[in-house]
UniProtKB/TrEMBL annotation:
Origin species: Microbacterium saccharophilum
Keyword Hydrolase recorded: yes
Keywords for this protein: Hydrolase
UniProt cross-references to InterPro entries, sorted A to Z: GDSL_Rv0518-like, SGNH_hydro, SGNH_hydro_sf
Pfam families from the UniProt entry: Lipase_GDSL_2
Protein name, as recorded: SGNH/GDSL hydrolase family protein
KW Hydrolase (keyword) present: yes
SGNH hydrolase-type esterase domain boundaries: 5-179
A GO molecular-function annotation: hydrolase activity
């Protein structure tokens, strides 16, 4: 199996930081769980970069990922677009149609994900909920009931919306959240899920910032990036832009 992932911070793994400061995330975990379930090594690449809008993901990552000759390609995007009120839902859904068409042309199985729903803990949560519902419905409609598209839909998962699955910035899942998403993807692939991944114990160091601290440390910097036209992903390279081998446990 040759698995490659494209997307934004959700797929890069932001929020699931390892002790050395690198990020892991659900896609890395899927590669590990897939190798373990099959008892065979997996070739894995991950082109996702935080802060990317959906069409830059497509333009900058899709063809590079397909050029590696994967058997499976995962795609999620639109979360950053959704936070911009003037963004067209149709414009977002068009990107998914394009990715599906290119996967069909290359004979690659598409793994389609929807992101988890952070709206309950964010300012303007009702607006985000409404736009997320519309985007999810539009993307599913574009798939046209295709049974050969592997679907791992996280947006409807009410459990995953609970604060215990999220990092202190309230936009990115913590390790517990990423493991739950990985469990859903592995299940959709027909693979076994390591024990406990669906609901790891709550993290003892989970931080819940007071409103003033949250505004200062997270919302404020996000607003400044919007005003200056910069992105948290500016200057970053994919963490796995070529194949890396994920070994099956001996």
């Amino acid at each position: 199996m040759r698995f490659t992932a494209i997307g934004d911070s959700f797929t890069e793994g932001v929020g699931d930081e390892l002790p050395d400061g690198t990020v892991r995330g659900w896609a890395d975990l899927v590669a590990q769980g897939w190798a373990r379930s099959r008892g065979a090594d997996i070739a894995y690449a991950n082109f996702a970069i935080r802060g990317k809008l959906v069409w830059p993901i497509v333009h900058q990552q899709l063809e590079a990922a397909l050029a590696l000759g994967p058997t499976h390609l995962s795609f999620n995007g639109g979360g950053n677009d959704m936070l911009r009120p003037r963004t067209s839902i149709t414009h977002i859904a068009d990107a998914f149609t394009h990715v599906l068409r290119r996967c069909d042309e290359e004979g690659v199985t598409l793994i389609l994900l929807s992101g988890a729903n952070p709206s309950a803990q964010l300012p303007m949560g009702r607006l985000i909920q409404r736009r997320g519902d519309l985007m999810s419905a539009a993307v599913i409609e574009r798939m046209g009931g295709r049974g050969d598209v592997v679907q791992a839909l996280n947006w409807p998962d009410a459990e995953l919306s609970r604060p215990a699955y999220w990092s202190e910035d309230r936009l990115h899942m913590n390790a517990r959240g990423h493991h739950r998403v990985a469990a859903r993807v592995l299940t959709a692939l027909g693979q076994s899920v390591p024990e406990g991944w669906w609901s790891l114990p709550e993290l003892p160091d989970a931080v819940r910032l007071r409103r003033a601290e949250y505004m200062r440390d997270h919302l404020g910097p996000w607003v400044r990036r919007r005003l200056t036209g910069t992105s948290s992903g500016d200057g970053r390279e994919p963490k796995y832009g070529i194949w890396t081998t994920v070994a099956a446990p001996v």
